[in-house]
Amino acid sequence: MSLIVQKFGGTSVGSAERIRAVAERVKRFHDAGDALVVVVSAMSGETNRLTELAHAMTDNPAARELDVLLSTGEQVTIALLCMCLHDIGVPARSFTGGQVGILTDTAHSKARILA
Fold first, then answer.
1. 63-86: per-residue pLDDT in tens?
2. Which residue, 29, 66, 81, 103, has fewest beta-carbon neighbours within 10 Å?
3. Residue 62's pLDDT is what?
4. Does 88 score more than 90 pLDDT?
C-alpha cells in the first residue's frame, strides 16, 4: 500500500460536477489499495468572492480576519468532497490544517509553515 497525496486546485473543484469527478478519481486509488491524503482549494472564484465581501465591510480588513474568512472556502470544498466520497462508498474525513497539526508563523496572508 502506498501513501499518495493528491492536490486539487480551484478549477478542479469549481462545481458540483467537478467535485464528483475528483471523488471518482480518489475512489480509483482507494479501490487499488492506496492510502490517500487529499488537499483541496476553495472552489473556483470563491476566494475572490470572499475577498470582495470583506472589502464591502471595510476598506482595510484585518489580515487575521481575512485569513479566517478565506479559509472557509477550503472548508466548504473539503466537506462537499467528503460527502461525495461517502456517497460512493469511500470512507473519508475532512480536516483543516490546524486539526492535523500544521503550525504557521503569525504573518497573516503570507504565513510560513513551522511544523
1. 999 999 999 999 999 999 999 999
2. 103
3. 97
4. yes
Q: In the structure grid, which three cell numbers stand for residue 47, read together?
A: 476566494
Using DSSP's 3-state secondary structure scheme, residue 56 falls into helix
Q: Are 39 and 6 in contact (CB under 8 A)?
A: yes
pTM value?
0.92
Helix (H) or strand (E) holding 47: helix 46-57
Residue 97 region, left (φ>0) first, then alpha (ψ -120 to 50), else beta? alpha
What is the residue extent of each domain of the chain?
Answer: 3-44+74-100
Cβ atoms 74, 46 nearer than 8 A? no
| Contacts (Cβ under 8 Å, ≥6 apart) of 45 | 10, 14
CA distance linking residue 21 with residue 16, whole number of Å: 9
Is residue 109 classed as helix, strand or coil in its secondary structure? coil
Q: Which three cell numbers stand for residue 94?
A: 475532512
Strands (E), the chain: 3-8, 35-40
